[in-house]
Structure formats: structure tokens, C-alpha cells
Amino acid sequence: MFHSSGWDARLDDRKALTLKGRLLKDQAKAADGPDRARLYGEAAEAYAAAAALERDSYPLINAAALALLGGKPERARSLARETLALLESDPEQGENAYWRAATRAEALLLLGDETGARAALADGIGKLPRAWEDHAATIGQFELILAEQGKDAAWLDRHRPPPSLYFSGIIGLDETDPTIRQDIDAIIAREQPGFGFGALAAGADILIAEALHRAGVELHVILPYPVDRFRELSVAPFGGHWLARFDALVEAAARLDVLAELPDEEERSIGVAVELADLVAMGQCVRNAGVLQSRPKALTITGIGDAPRHQHLVWAETGHDQFAISVARKADHQSITGLSDEETREVAAILRVEDLDRDVLSQLPEAARAFQTAGDGQYRISTNIAEMLATGRSLLQHNSDSRISLLIDIMDPQRPAASLLEQAGDMARASGGGAALTDYKSAMVLTLEPGRHAVEEIGELQTAHGPLSLWSLA
Length: 474
Prior knowledge:
With 474 residues, this protein is an alpha/beta fold. The chain folds into 3 domains: 7-159, Tetratricopeptide repeat domain (Serine Threonine Protein Phosphatase 5, Tetratricopeptide repeat), CATH 1.25.40; 164-327, Rossmann fold (3-Layer(aba) Sandwich), CATH 3.40.50; 346-473, Nucleotide cyclase, GGDEF domain (Alpha-Beta Plaits). It has 17 helices and 13 strands. The strands form 3 sheets. The protein has a 6-stranded parallel sheet, with helices on both faces. It has a 4-stranded antiparallel sheet with strand order 8-9-7-10, sandwiched between helices. Helix 8 (178-191) links the parallel strand 1 and strand 2 (195-198). Helix 3 (57-69) packs antiparallel against helix 4 (73-89), helix 5 (97-110) runs parallel beside helix 7 and helix 9 (204-214) packs across helix 11 (241-252).
């Protein structure tokens, strides 16, 4: 899109040059060997050209850092000195007090003054201590610089934003047992998360969420049904004393996401609905930690002797820390998440391709060729999300112009709802090639898949069922 719109040719446009530098930098991070150094060098020159048009510390310090990564340390030092001089001469430089101090720290680091860089970075973080994404961006940049300089980056750990915590657990526990709350509080005090991700069912969910809220943790709630319906199914049946606690946590949440059905879908059984919500919450946790250059962790409360639930196995496969508290179940408790015998729907993925190239298709493994036709496009459905992701990436590798979408939802793989096929088609047609498109919940689930793939929000798509958050998968 950047090239097709002619932005790459705007050599007298500071914004276009800055965007060009950022895109080249992203390409360099994903490249290897000589291509990586070349792309970093091209990114450095784009930023330097932007700084020449208007003296601004942001493109100037980026040009300095990228010159180093592109194999030009003398050029990097020269640009770093220019950056320091600009900061000294113009007190208005920098988007805010944090960025002014962080830019100074980066220039000092490029000049070999690590002591000065440490002090300047600490000063900036002290000015805006909760600007987590800004801190994370700086830490990521400093890690690249220190690696290029052959220096230890461990000192950055003290400045990392706090961990993100996915939480879950059973309903049928004795909430009056003081040891449960003590164990939850002890783990939170030890791990010191800054962000919590999970649902708010009666029992473990609410106990953990309340403890997180007491500790000042930012709460992100993901529900498998609209709030009132979830309250009716997963809170009210277990005692009226849970209702006010649920309502208070909904009110306290920094973000609330609801996985609603499309108009032509019947209500999902609670077991499969909770499974998808768990996957989305885990993905939110992992993505948030990745964006903030920190660590994702999980806390769950299980019944003594319980077999691991699906989400525990999924989290274990990510390799991230997981903490479990085992408690005695109430004798009269019955699980609400068992799949109904009549439920034929599962969490599955639709891979939709517009104008599928049969020559490209013939190069895929035989098992990946079973596409069905829908309108002008073709699609596959499978509960094996990893396989669908791999197939989509193979199609793009063979033909980068392929228009592809990957939609994860609850469906009967043999009889998917027409609205889901329509949504997958809308996203595929919106693609300009080069990446598969997906929606928010699918993007979060795909974050859990291993391998090097970038999942980024790119905008919003208007559909017959309302606006759809659009994400790219490359």
C-alpha cells in the first residue's frame, strides 16, 4: 500500500520519509544476513532525510541507531552528537518529558557512555512511570544497540514494564477458605503483574480478579457471552453473593471484550464458548507482554486431583510460566463447561482464498488441497489451527499477491454458518496481498501459535454485520 500509493517517491515529505524508515526497519528486523544490514542502512538514510527537512530529534536519533545496525558506527556517532546538540539547543524537542530523556539516553548509549545512558533513562521513566508502551519501545531499541555493541543488556530488566497475567480456575470451591485468598495474594505479590486477563465466573475467576484489583493491576475482562447472559449462566446460579462482586469488577475493568454470536448462529454451548474465550484471553496476555517487552504468566486454581484442562495444556505449550493453586472442590458442585452431546460446533478456522491459483495449490501437500468453492473464492475449514496457518503462509510464499483471510470461531466444520463464510470472504477481498487478514479474536488466538509471524492491527472493515477490527498476519 505504501508503494502503490506513491508514498515511497515523496522525497520532500517528512512524514512519508519517516514512515518509509519505520517500514524498512520492520523489514530489517525480519530479515537475516546481508539483507538485514542493507535494510537497516536504507532505513537510516530515510530517517536522516526526514531530519534534514525539519530538525526533529525523533527521526535524527532513529537515523543514528539504524546507522549503527546497518554497519556504519562512525555515521551513528556523528548523528548521535547532532541529536544531543539539538536537545541542548531546543528544550521543546521530544513528544514529552519521557521521550526527551529517552532520546538523550539513546544518543549517549550510541556514543559509548553507558553510565550516562542509564541515568538518563532512569530519569525519563521517573517522569512518566506508567508510560508502559513508550518504555517498551525504548527497551527494544536499546537491546538492538547493545547487541550490536557486544554489551550486556541485563541492566534493562529493572526498567521493563510489569508482567501480564492470564487467570482462570474452577467455580466449585469454598470461597470462605482463607488460605485460597492468601495463596492468590502471595503469588501476585511475588510476580507483581501489571495487567490481568481472564473471565469473571463465580469462584476462582472472581477471587483472582478481586486480588488483582486490590493490588492495583489493570484488569482486562473477556466474556464468552454478553454481560447479562454471562451473569445469568456463570455467576447467578452459584449464589447471589457473587453478583455484586461480578458487577463491581465489570465496572473496574480497563477493557471488556465480549464474544458475541452472529445473527444466524444459535447460542453456543458454554463449554465451547468458554474454550474460545480462554484462547482469546491467553492471546491477549501474550500479545500485551510482547508489545511491552515484558513477560506473560498464568495463574489458575484447580481442584485437587483434576486432570489438566485444555487451556492449561495450551499455555504449557507456549513455554511461559504457569502457577497453580490446588483446592478441595465443594461436594455438591457440578461442572457447567462440559460439552453437550448435541453440540456439534468446535473452535475451528476458515482459510478463505480469493481467485485461488490452481498451479500454486498443486504445490501444497495433498492434505492441504481440499478447498471448497463459495462464490468467487475457495475455503477450507479445520480444527487444526496450526495446519491452517501453515497452509495460508505457504500460499503467500508461492504467490505473494494471494488474497487470503483466516477466521477462527466456533462452528460446525461440516456445516459452517453462512455469516462466518461471508465474514471470511469480506476479509479476503479486503486484502491487497502480501499478508493474510483476520479479525481481533482470531489475531489473539494466533498469537499463541509458535513461529515467527507478525500480527498487527491495520484498521476497520465495514461489513453487513457491522464494523470488524482488521488485523494482518505476515
